[in-house]
Amino acid sequence: MTHSNTPRRRSLLKGAAVAAGALSAPMVATAQTTTSLRFQSTWPAKDIFHEYAQDFAKKVNDMASGRLKIEVLPAGAVVPAFQLLEAVAKGTLDGGHGVVAYHYGKNSALALWGSGPSFGMDPNMLLAWHNYGGGKELLEEIYKSLNLDVVSYLYGPMPTQPFGWFKKPIAKAEDMKGVKFRTVGLAVDMYTDMGAAVNPLPGGEIVPALDRGLIDGAEFNNASSDRLLGFPDVVKNCMLQSFHQSGEQFEILFNKTKLTALPTELKSIIDYAVQAASADMSWKAIERNSKDYDELKKQGVKFYKTPDAILRGQLAAWDKIMTKKGGENAMFQKILDSQKVFAQRAGQWQNDYTVDFKMAYNHYFGRGAKKS
User: Fold this and answer.
1) Using 50, 70 and 90 to split pLDDT, how confident is the model at 263?
2) Reported confidence tier of residue 19, pLDDT bands at 50, 70, 90
3) Which of 40, 105, 165, 172 is the most buried (most CB within 10 A)?
4) What is the pTM of this model?
């Protein structure tokens, strides 16, 4: 080896020694900061909907590895259910879990995320419109016009909700006349048009009101929630299928200032947790709702299909409501126009491509099915 390589060799040896020293030096612990956010749902603690809210929070907490922690309180822990939006906007709460229809009183157009037939779109299609057809931007526009400092994430397509629980089965549209009934959102207008006297009670107050005779009937959402809320203890008739809220989904709210202050990585975790929770909720709903549907039958509940004449009556009522509200509220009409364009295209595709699953079900489980 020539002398010309000596300086280079010394440099390499020195670098190796520094690296070795760095490896052998003790690690200096870096303190991790945890951002804690306090959420409230609009659901009673025992309801499966509150469980969905907790499921979302757990996904965020697990992925954030201690950097972010969301705690979810049940309805009424800080504010009443219907005051959630204002509480999140003001920073009284950092976030919340509910449904857009609960904000109906702020702007009637907010009810169009779930209330009504949505031009034939199912819940998942309505979410597709929201995320890819312009709905998200329209919702942001409404909240901005109301000076609400919130960021909204919609997720979790709900199964079709029953027409309602009644002391007596509803055989024809005339049977709704004078019935004291609970519903929320734009569905208030539909049931009112059908002759009912509507009282928009929060979920936790429905069964006590039924028990005391303050209302004659009510709708809430699904077999699991209805069973846990105690519907079968006070009413034994449930009418299935309806267009009053056939495409609803959940809303996760964040105080905008709190969310904006988070690092980009944590905001991405929240975004992907919403998507993961949406899919997980859909699968859990199928498992739990189907089991609770069987349990309700065992508790003596009688289920009836809502007659087609009533369903057509619902659609006719919606036609009048959309014309009236659209004329009163430019944003209402703007949302209807957006949904209609998306629904015509997406609905054509879905209806043409989707096979009749009832045919296969009846083949295996219906009357006349082969016994194995």
Assistant:
1) very high
2) very low
3) 40
4) 0.87
Q: What are phi and psi of 36, to 5 degrees?
A: -105, 130
User: What is the DSSP track for 322-344?
Assistant: HHHHHHH-HHHHHHHHHHHHHHH
Structure tokens at 329: 């509220």
What pLDDT shows up at residue 265? 97
Burial 45-82 (b: 16+ CB within 10 A, else e): eebbbbbbbbbbbebbbebbeebbebebbbbbebbebb
CA atoms within 13 A on the CB side of 329: 19
> How confident is the model at residue 25, as a pLDDT?
44
How far apart, in whole angstroms, are the C-alpha atoms of residue 49 and residue 299? 22
CB 227 within 8 A of CB 292: yes
Distance CA(274)–CA(197), nearest Å, equals 37
Closest C-alpha to 221, from 83, 59, 73, 98: 98
The rounded distance, in Å, linking the Cα atoms of 314 and 194 is 8
Specify the CATH number of the domain 35-157+247-289.
Answer: 3.40.190.170
- Does residue 242 contact residue 306 with C-beta atoms inside 8 Å? yes
Place of tokens 């009749």: 356
Statement: residue 148 has pLDDT above 90? yes
Tokens encoding 292? 């609770």
| Mean pLDDT value across residues 79-101 | 96
CA distance 264 to 290: 39
Sign, Cα dihedral of 248, 306, 46, 106: positive
What mean pLDDT is predicted for residues 339-367?
A: 96
